[in-house]
Design goal:
Layout: H1 5-33, H2 40-59, H3 68-87
Helix pairs in contact: 1-2, 1-3, 2-3
């Protein structure tokens, strides 16, 4: 199958979103395991994911449970799905 340059760029962006999705999932899972915020892996994941999580937290009302990762998972899947429509 031959892809146009535009489709290649869209596929690349979709793959980046998928990688970000897995990094976000890793952060959520490690937040339950790693209790030391000085851990280098957790600091890396925090630095990568916090720029998108912080604005969502500012919009959401204060609750006992942080659901911003769930919202971001849904937004990432929505964007990925919309972009996938350009490839087909």
């Amino acid at each position: 199958m031959y892809y146009t340059p535009f489709q290649v760029i869209i596929i690349f962006i979709i793959r980046l979103i998928e990688v970000y999705y897995w990094l976000l999932l890793a952060r959520v899972l490690l937040s339950w395991i790693i209790q030391n915020p000085d851990n280098r892996l957790y600091q890396f994941l925090y630095g990568i994911t916090e720029p998108l999580l912080a604005p969502i937290r500012r919009i959401l009302p204060a609750m006992g449970l942080d659901i911003s990762p769930i919202i971001l998972f849904l937004v990432l899947r929505l964007i990925s799905g919309l972009l996938y429509g350009f490839v087909q």
